[in-house]
Design goal:
Blueprint: E1 3-8, E2 11-18, E3 27-31, H1 44-55, E4 59-63, H2 79-95, E5 102-107, H3 109-120, E6 124-130, E7 148-154, H4 162-173, E8 180-185, H5 196-211
Parallel strand pairs: 3-4, 3-5, 5-6, 6-7, 7-8
Antiparallel strand pairs: 1-2, 2-4
Helix pairs in contact: 1-5, 2-3
């Protein structure tokens, strides 16, 4: 897959990019875990997500947030990283103007950035949030969450405890017009040690069902005049 460098808000950003053969293929952007705790675009889960979307014909991009690998700049506590993600999506869209839809998948810190990107970009029609951390990051901006998606976590996750993730899911599930699918991987910790295959099987099943037109929200009931 081609190594690429593109311009971000704080300097150059390093990524891996695989264009689809179809001009109008959807775009997938994958966002890595926390830069200050070893997160990079070469994280195993990020790589597997990239490959999953690529295999299904998406134009796919993963990249290093500012200050990681060959990406310039310094860690910016989320605000700058969100700008990096928006720039990454702009860059792919400039190369694929016929692509009308987009997915975002994020793991841990990347899940928080991905959900913020979702709020800013109406073309994002699906998301995957893997091990989000509502105990650490504020997700109240999802009011309302504009797209259906998957939230998946391990029930032995001490970094993002199950009860906090469940609270976020319940809030989002109460919203009309979207469908939140929640999966829990039994025995998995925050890093899915020994459970990455199970995690990816759940992600693949979800994506395949969405691409087949399943998992769409019930239409809102019509008012009787």
């Amino acid at each position: 897959m081609p190594e690429i460098i593109f311009n971000g808000p704080a300097g150059r950003l390093e990524g891996r990019y695989q264009p689809s053969k179809q001009k109008n293929a959807p775009i997938a952007i994958i966002l890595h875990p926390h830069p200050q705790f070893g997160g990079t675009m070469n994280n195993q889960i990020v790589y597997q997500l990239f490959y999953m979307f690529q295999k299904r014909g998406f134009t796919t991009l993963r990249f290093n947030f500012r200050g990681i690998g060959r990406s310039q700049g310094e860690f910016d506590h989320g605000a700058g990283e969100l700008s990096d993600a928006a720039s990454a999506l702009d860059w792919v869209q400039s190369l694929h103007p016929d692509s009308k839809s987009c997915w975002v998948a994020g793991y841990s810190f990347g899940a928080w950035i991905g959900m913020q990107l979702l709020m800013r970009r109406p073309e994002i029609e699906g998301f995957m949030s893997i091990a989000p951390q509502p105990n650490i990051y504020d997700f109240s901006f999802l009011a309302p969450c504009p797209s259906s998606g998957l939230i998946i976590n391990g029930d032995a996750d001490k970094v993002a405890p199950e009860k906090d993730v469940n609270g976020l899911v319940e809030k989002l599930k109460a919203q009309k017009g979207i469908l939140i699918t929640h999966k829990t991987v039994p025995g998995a910790n925050h890093f899915f040690n020994g459970q990455v295959e199970t995690l990816m099987a759940e992600c693949e099943d979800y994506l395949d069902r969405r691409l087949a037109g399943e998992l769409t929200p019930e239409p809102a009931a019509k008012r009787i005049r």
